């Protein structure tokens, strides 16, 4: 087996383990779960205080207790999981929808393609930050919070547009290449051309953008959460913990951890983006 193949399998295995950990994280941070690695509930009130003042770290609460009396470490772990899972779901769903719509648009004649593109450009003028604020406000009013539903709604409203334009541009170029026209002359169906020739090229162009879309959405989600200044009992977020920055250095032991996590995630996503771009350039050139 080639070394490159082994490395790919290791990457796939590590990514699969990472996704599984994200999914089962609520079971790992739960005082009633048998598989818990940290037996604290992120939503349980461990200390009631009339003044609602955060308590510093102790042996039982390594990162302290927030002003609502909840364990900060438990909320930080689940908040990190929520942020990554929401941004990953949003970017992935946006890419799938964008590739589908962009490829279909690109298969039309040039005039129809440009007409539809202008309509999409009008939709693109809707500010993403405004959309996020409205959607977050709506879901925070609900008793339950469905992360997949939220990510899908974001993707349907705004996220797919960038991917659709890239898929459209690639489709317009590829469908006019000689080998594609030769396939059409030999009776190849539109579906076969899309799956065999267009989709691989489109995916290679879009895959490197997904980490950037994740980083952009992750930062926006947490900024909106920070500005809302609400204590979310059922949905821990990094933005909620970053609210303590308003107190300055007084509660720096609370907000420094989510800030470092947010910066670290964005750096990792930027590195992944660079590696994917190098890899895809090599594949396209070969």
UniProtKB/TrEMBL annotation:
GO cellular component: plasma membrane
Gene transcribed to yield this protein: oppC-2
Principal subcellular localisation of the protein: membrane
Keyword hit for Thylakoid: no
Cited InterPro entries: BP-dependent_transpt_permease (IPR050366), MetI-like (IPR000515), MetI-like_sf (IPR035906)
Domain (ABC transmembrane type-1): residue spans on this chain: 80-273
Keywords noted in UniProt: Cell membrane, Membrane, Transmembrane, Transmembrane helix, Transport
PROSITE patterns: ABC_TM1
Any Gene Ontology biological process: transmembrane transport
Membrane topology: Multi-pass membrane protein
Protein name, UniProt field: Oligopeptide ABC transporter, permease protein
The keyword Transmembrane helix is annotated on this UniProt entry: yes
PANTHER family with a match to the protein in the record: D,D-DIPEPTIDE TRANSPORT SYSTEM PERMEASE PROTEIN DDPC-RELATED, OLIGOPEPTIDE TRANSPORT SYSTEM PERMEASE PROTEIN APPC
Membrane-traversing stretches: 6-25, 84-110, 122-140, 253-276
Pfam families referenced in this protein's UniProt entry, alphabetically: BPD_transp_1 (PF00528)
Subcellular location(s) of the protein: Cell membrane
Organism name: Borrelia garinii subsp. bavariensis (strain ATCC BAA-2496 / DSM 23469 / PBi)
Record-stated family: Belongs to the binding-protein-dependent transport system permease family.
SUPFAM superfamilies to which the protein is assigned, alphabetical: MetI-like (SSF161098)
């Amino acid at each position: 087996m080639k070394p490159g193949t082994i490395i790919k399998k290791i990457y796939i295995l590590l990514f699969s383990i990472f996704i599984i950990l994200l999914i089962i994280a609520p079971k790992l941070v739960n005082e009633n779960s048998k598989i818990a690695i940290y037996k604290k509930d992120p939503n349980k009130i461990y200390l009631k205080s009339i003044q609602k003042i955060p308590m510093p770290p102790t042996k039982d609460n390594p990162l302290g207790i927030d002003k609502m009396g909840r364990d900060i470490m438990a909320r930080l772990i689940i908040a990190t999981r929520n942020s990554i899972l929401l941004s990953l779901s949003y970017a992935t769903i946006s890419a799938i929808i964008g590739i589908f719509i962009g490829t279909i648009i690109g298969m039309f004649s040039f005039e129809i393609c440009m007409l539809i593109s202008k309509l999409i450009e009008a939709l693109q003028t809707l500010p993403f930050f405004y959309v996020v604020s409205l959607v977050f406000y709506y879901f925070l009013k609900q008793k339950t919070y469905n992360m997949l539903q939220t990510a899908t709604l974001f993707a349907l409203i705004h996220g797919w547009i960038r991917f659709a334009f890239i898929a459209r541009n690639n489709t317009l170029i590829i469908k006019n290449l000689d080998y594609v026209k030769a396939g059409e002359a030999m009776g190849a169906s539109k579906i076969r051309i899309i799956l065999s020739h267009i989709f691989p090229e489109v995916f290679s162009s879009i895959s490197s953008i997904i980490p950037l879309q994740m980083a952009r959405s992750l930062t926006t989600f947490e900024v909106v959460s920070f500005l809302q200044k609400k204590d979310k009992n059922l949905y821990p977020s990094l933005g909620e913990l970053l609210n303590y920055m308003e107190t300055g250095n007084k509660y720096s032991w609370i907000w420094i951890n989510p800030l470092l996590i947010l910066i670290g995630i964005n750096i990792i996503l930027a590195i992944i983006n660079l590696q994917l771009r190098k890899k895809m350039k090599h594949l396209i050139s070969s």
